[in-house]
């Protein structure tokens, strides 16, 4: 029978130097990051909830009222903070971006993985990486100086519009959806393609009926990631959306979204006022929505894995 | 010799992978509604030969083929549309490769891509194919479940059913039982025995006993050549060529 290993009371310096320090260091970084995340959430939540706890705004009114008069004086009834316009703005603009971007992204992903992998690797992959690297202010500026006048001339209206914001966002989320979708397609086993061809399918039938459906969980993950990015983007959208506080009647109307109102108003408001607190509530709302997106991605991911 | 109809024949078939001469002057005749086994050591060209019959080698860019393959006296490489050819010559692969969709959709895939849309016709095709592949009783209650949840042996029979649903005339099988346990292997072998009443079957196998059990004719491949092609009985009892004898008795390979 082997002897049980006794714990030595003497400190093993070799072990300390070559194992413990490194382990302690990376553990510290890991824990620090977790702590930071928690603190951030707690901070935003405490700020965001003060609208409801301290200023006694009803959460329902905040979420479902379109009345935004955060600076109304007490004689007229005091400030009202209904964020529905911003919420609708954010949803509309993200959905428009998604509707424009998804077909392009999936098409590009299929092209670069199935139709011409060589061209995909040499030309499209670098192009997509460039897209990712362009700062959002540049997207916004190009949108402002090209897209806005273009929409104004061709479709009328101011040019600053939901449509302009949607298009700028569509370009910005295109690389995200494309690269995740392409990875999903590339990860498929070659068997599927072989089996499909052997049954007499054409290449297009194989792509359409086997490859894309098989890669769907991965592709959807890309779409949700794109949606999350669209929801959170502030600067580029703010530059082209017009920032008028109203529910847009058409694609060509200007409007505003959650991120834009936060960046516009945060500098003009005094810490602790209803106005300022309601901006924090919107930040909290953005945080909650991005959590939901993350949960959704995990759900899709686990649905895609099939038990063998 | 009995006088049988020839389903597939090749004439001076040669195949190159880039510079590698993988098939050398292959001249064989495969009989209709018989099981023809292709045996030989790894890398001898038997799988490559199998894939020339439904042009699966076309997918590999570096492959060059000369000579002719005939299916029902029409040239496979010149007189057939590739979709039509693969409809008539189905293929079962070494590793079970069902699509990650339901059992039903796997079987219905072939009929669907060939234009059958009516629900009742698809239902019929699915049931018939699964019955023919001896899988119906095991999966009839879970047609809507994902096919990847089936066992390996069931998956392979599903793949056979998927091929049968396209109503082919020839079924090519590339070591269909090498990834399966003995019981599943036995089931597939029984199935092959049933299938040869309706289909011409060409099967690549590493398993000599399997070739002996299930095939009517056997071709022995070595270094890209057909060394001997005769009735299975003859190949296994009194092969003409010394190399065949050596391989069969396990002296190399």
Short description:
The complex is a heterodimer of chains A (308) and B (253). Chain A has 12 helices and 2 strands, in the order ααββαααααααααα. Chain A is mostly helical.
Would you give an account of this structure?
The complex is a heterodimer of chains A (308) and B (253). Chain A has 308 residues and is an all-alpha fold. Chain A has one domain: MetI-like (MetI-like fold, Orthogonal Bundle). Chain A contains twelve helices and two strands; from the N terminus they run H-H-E-E-H-H-H-H-H-H-H-H-H-H. In chain A, strands 1-2 form a two-stranded antiparallel ribbon. Chain A is flat, with a radius of gyration of 25 Å. The model of chain A has no long low-confidence stretch (mean pLDDT 91). Chain B is of the alpha/beta class and 253 residues long. Chain B is built from ten helices and eleven strands. A six-stranded mixed β-sheet of chain B has the order 7-8-9-4-10-11, sandwiched between helices. In chain B, strands 1, 2, 3, 5 and 6 form a five-stranded antiparallel β-sheet that branches. In chain B, helix 7 links the parallel strand 8 and strand 9. Chain B is globular and about 55 Å long. At the A-B interface, helix 7 and helix 8 of A face helix 2, helix 3 and helix 6 of B.
Q: Tell me what portion of residues of chain B adopts beta-strand conformation.
A: 25-35%
**Radius of gyration of chain A in whole Å, from Cα?**
25 Å
Enumerate the strands of the largest sheet of chain A in spatial order, edge to edge or round the barrel: 1-2
* End-to-end CA span of chain A: 41 Å
Mean pLDDT of chain B: 92
SSE layout and pairings?
The complex is a heterodimer of chains A (308) and B (253).
Chain A: H1 13-53, H2 59-64, E1 68-69, E2 80-81, H3 84-115, H4 117-133, H5 136-155, H6 162-186, H7 190-198, H8 203-214, H9 216-232, H10 235-241, H11 258-265, H12 274-304
Antiparallel strand pairs in A: 1-2
Chain B: E1 6-17, E2 20-26, E3 29-31, E4 35-39, H1 46-53, E5 63-71, E6 74-75, H2 82-88, E7 89-92, H3 103-113, H4 119-132, H5 136-139, H6 152-164, E8 170-174, H7 182-195, E9 200-204, H8 208-214, E10 217-222, E11 225-231, H9 232-237, H10 242-248
Parallel strand pairs in B: 4-9, 4-10, 7-8, 8-9
Antiparallel strand pairs in B: 1-2, 1-3, 1-5, 5-6, 10-11
Helix pairs in contact in B: 3-4, 3-6, 4-6, 6-7
